[in-house]
């Protein structure tokens, strides 16, 4: 029950019991879903005009636009507003403007950032296997697979946002890569999240790329991950079968709370097995799990474990704490404790069964050792 000390001064003698009893057991009203704006970037610098829906009433301008335009961050929205590219009712607006709903809004130019492009960059690669058709890479955490879409103009300097990607490293290390994925994603058949480490296979020529893509689509590969999660999972083995779609409120996240019939929501299946339960007096309780995924949805393992109430250690996007432990003795991890440890597939050309394995990176090994030692 809320404390009376939460009441304004002068009212603290008043009991809060009636308000508490009236709202007990009542679910809070869900925030309105903001309709998504379908905005393309292929129309040059034209002005894009639309009307704020009634659902936007009470929201700040930057808050509304970041929810209404897919794949655009609030920081990007604020930059557009600072540059005077957003007008409300014909006037250049500020980010903190509160909308009423029904206002005409104009965005001058493309709302998405300028296009990125891939370029060779001398970055060390841990190559687990290589032949004339494909290569298997052990990707470190912190490295993006690829950055974005588009091609720079001739003579244009590489965009800073596109430095340090796996694609850049591949272009430097290999003479040829497949072009099925386009100029931005040469050789890329599948992806790992930026803060996830482990095995990723790349194609050197188009026929191998197409065959690998078919194998991923038909679930002919065996993908196994290791994850350390907060809390104790009681069951030894279990299956998580929850659909995954974009979170309509926090668009950088995925969620299992939308129905499979909703637009953009897809089925997702994860097989999980507990490998170890760790109970640390100083740092808390943890479970090391092995996860084999049949589908490859965005953030699938992270979302499924978060839906169970056991977020992956280090995964602050899905509810994991930044630090854990006693106030004077805390641990932290600046990446997700999620590692693509094993990939088994049939080589598209030789038909040989390929079993690729990657050991846990040192930072994950050290964290486990610290928890086990307590």
UniProtKB/TrEMBL annotation:
The active site is at 193. PROSITE patterns: PSI_RLU, S4. Coiled coil: none annotated. It comes from the Bacteria. InterPro entries: PsdUridine_synth_cat_dom_sf, PsdUridine_synth_RluA-like_CS, PsdUridine_synth_RluC/D, PsdUridine_synth_RsuA/RluA, RluA_PseudoU_synthase, S4_RNA-bd, S4_RNA-bd_sf. Transmembrane segments: none annotated. Keywords: Isomerase, RNA-binding. GO terms for molecular function: RNA binding; rRNA pseudouridine synthase activity. The keyword RNA-binding applies. Pfam families: PseudoU_synth_2 (PF00849), S4 (PF01479). Its EC number is 5.4.99.-. It catalyses: a uridine in RNA = a pseudouridine in RNA. Gene3D superfamilies: Pseudouridine synthase, RNA-binding S4 domain. GO terms for biological process: enzyme-directed rRNA pseudouridine synthesis. Residues 1-27 are annotated as: Disordered. Residues 59-124 form the RNA-binding S4 domain. SUPFAM superfamilies: Alpha-L RNA-binding motif, Pseudouridine synthase. Belongs to the pseudouridine synthase RluA family. Responsible for synthesis of pseudouridine from uracil. This is Pseudouridine synthase. It comes from Edaphobacter modestus. The lineage of its organism: Bacteria, Pseudomonadati, Acidobacteriota, Terriglobia, Terriglobales.
